[in-house]
Specification:
Elements (H helix, E strand, L loop, with lengths): L2 H11 L5 H9 L4 H21 L5 H18 L12 E7 L7 H11 L3 E5 L6 H10 L4 E5 L3 H17 L7 E4 L5 H11 L4 E3 L3 H12 L1
Parallel strand pairs: 1-2, 1-3, 3-4, 4-5
Helix pairs in contact: 1-2, 1-3, 1-4, 2-4, 3-4, 5-9
Bound molecules: CO-5-methoxybenzimidazolylcobamide.
Amino acid sequence: LPLFERLERRIVDGDRNGLDADLDEALRDRPALAIINDTLLSGMKTVGELFGSGQMQLPFVLQSAEVMKAAVAYLEPHMESEDSGGKGRIVLATVKGDVHDIGKNLVDIILSNNGYEVVNLGIKQPITTILDAAAENKADAIGMSGLLVKSTVIMKENLEEMNSRGVSTRWPVLLGGAALTRSYVENDLTEMYLGDVRYARDAFEGLRLMDAIMG
Ligand code: B1M
């Protein structure tokens, strides 16, 4: 297979053998971010489709996710970055009950490489922990990620909790993840949340929104 097809295939097959050498070769052709966006994410999309249609079993999805993570970790030092973390601080977490973190970690990388300080709390984080971290770290914003349909409900409950604690105007909230839709966030959630809540389709929209919030 040609290089970029082979790389995409490695994600789908969960095949790490020779991954680094292929990534080195790919880096001679295009920037790290383009490799992630155009090649690796396309492989993850196929994994999602195969799993969703019952053609791929969960342990293999996990293997694919691990190869994806290894590839992103390998590429990260090759990404362009602004050195200062001085543009603002965001607390980032995958919500309660959800273990998906590849997208959240990409958001972390993109924001960190573009001048933001990211406090990444990890997966399955209850709102209490997120709010404590936001207060402790004097965060400028909170970012929540979640890929399960039930996570969209958790996000709404989290915003309700923020309303009832009277902290909604303190932190703008960025939401992202595959199960969310723009209209759910911009209509339903905007209507109930007393503060500022925004939808990010991908990590780059997350960056644009942070720039707008801090601007
Ligand atoms: Co799971 N999984 N999974 N999974 N998994 C999905 C989400 C699913 C859609 C697959 C499918 O059925 N087709 C489905 C959800 C269905 C639903 O809820 N309706 C699903 C399921 C069902 C499950 C389990 C329940 C399976 C089971 O146990 N029977 C289980 C859930 C466990 C749990 O959470 N409690 C489970 C487990 C797993 C693995 C552990 C095997 C693995 C995750 C490994 C890991 O993350 N460390 C996994 C994977 C890999 C997937 C798919 C295949 C790929 C997800 C991914 O990494 N995509 C996924 C299929 C899919 O999404 N279509 C699927 C790449 C990633 C870069 O995209 O995270 O969407 P994403 O991030 C994007 C944007 O959404 C955005 O930016 C990123 C791109 O720039 N974004 C943000 C995300 N967060 C953001 C936050 C922001 C801004 C932007 O600001 C705060």
